[in-house]
Amino acid sequence: SVNDLIVGSVEVTGNTAQIEFRLFNVYTGQQLLGYSLPARVNNLRFAAHQVADKVYEKLTGTPGAFATRIAYIRHDNSGKKSTWKLIVADSDGANAHVVVKSLQLLMSPAFSSAGSRIAYVEFEDNESHIYIQNIATGERRLVLARPGLNSAPAFSPDGKELAVVLSTRPGNPDIYILNLITNKLRRVTHSPAIDTEPVWMPDGKNLIFTSDRGGAPQLYELALNGDGKARRITWNGSYNARAAVSPDGKTVALVHRENGALKIAVLNLTSGNMRLLTNGPTDVSPSFAPNGAMILYSTGSGKQRKLATVSVDGRVHEELSGSAGALSQPTWGKIPGADAWDSSAPNSLKRR
């Protein structure tokens, strides 16, 4: 049965549209929500996502994530020409546009917490360099091009630092923190093993990363102002990697290998319990939605890799539209200044 009903209208004047809608409980007739939203005519799709966010939040108590965006890498290999593209799209995969195009490998895109910048790795003459790019203006900044490996950038929650992976010698990647204001580097892991794929906890005080220091890839947590000793947090199976932390810091999404298949799983940091969300055989690169309710990931193989989402409870699975092709390394981010609601008239639509 249907419990709630949305009614609304769109009035267009020139290049501007005024969207009005109401959300009602169909049994009581009570108005649950009413808003007036101005929007540009050429941006009605985004406005519809904003309406969906408001309705979702009212009905679930959790902020919506429809008016957000994703980024991913697309590899096109047709004939003799091979190209890599860093693409930014709406949260459902539509409205995709190329941010960076290269004849050499692009990898590891990562949004800043505000969503205005994106860090990524670009290979030039087969050497890896880390860039940060302003998504709106296209202006980019080369931040690391040291000899050896420069990889796996991850913005700190305040956007002032970047966790990165650098190699002091071949085969020995370690994690460093780059201050984006002073350009000073601080090494935070000192292991002869491979330490990689750092992600920040929401408080900015801890990192979770992948390391094979125990003989196989597992996840570890490191307090940045502690004694430098990392604590292992995954114990199920022989392969757990590629962490993503939920916005509330309570859950980690990861890639777990079981019977040779790579699957997306979630780890409760309080209980230590792990739960599988997907069936594989090659599900990788999890990334939480900004509201923590869904996880974006890459699935498939070879040229048939696509993007999909799964709810954190594993009940809802969906493939993203327009996601056919060799797509990999998706990441989910906010849109800066996305809240375009008319501040002079929130909840201004009154029940008649």
Can you tell me about this structure?
The chain is mostly beta strands. Helix content is 5%, strand content 51%. The protein has one helix at residues 44-60; strands spanning 4-13, 16-25, 31-40, 69-78, 81-90, 97-102, 106-111, 117-124, 127-134, 140-144, 150-155, 161-167, 173-179, 185-187, 195-200, 206-211, 218-223, 231-232, 240-245, 251-258, 261-268, 274-276, 284-288, 294-299, 306-311, 317-319, 326-333. A four-stranded antiparallel β-sheet has the order 6-5-4-27, with no helix packed on it. Strands 7-8-9-10 form a four-stranded antiparallel β-sheet, with no helix packed on it. It has a four-stranded antiparallel β-sheet with strand order 11-12-13-14, with no helix packed on it. The longest helix is centred in the N-terminal third of the chain and has 17 residues, at 44-60.
- Kindly, what is the distance between the CA atoms of the first and last residues, rounded to a whole number of angstroms? 25 Å
Shape: globular
Mean pLDDT: 92
Structural class: mainly beta
| Spans of at least 5 consecutive residues with low confidence | 342-352
Largest sheet: 4 strands, antiparallel
* Helix fraction by DSSP (H/I, runs of at least 4): under 10%
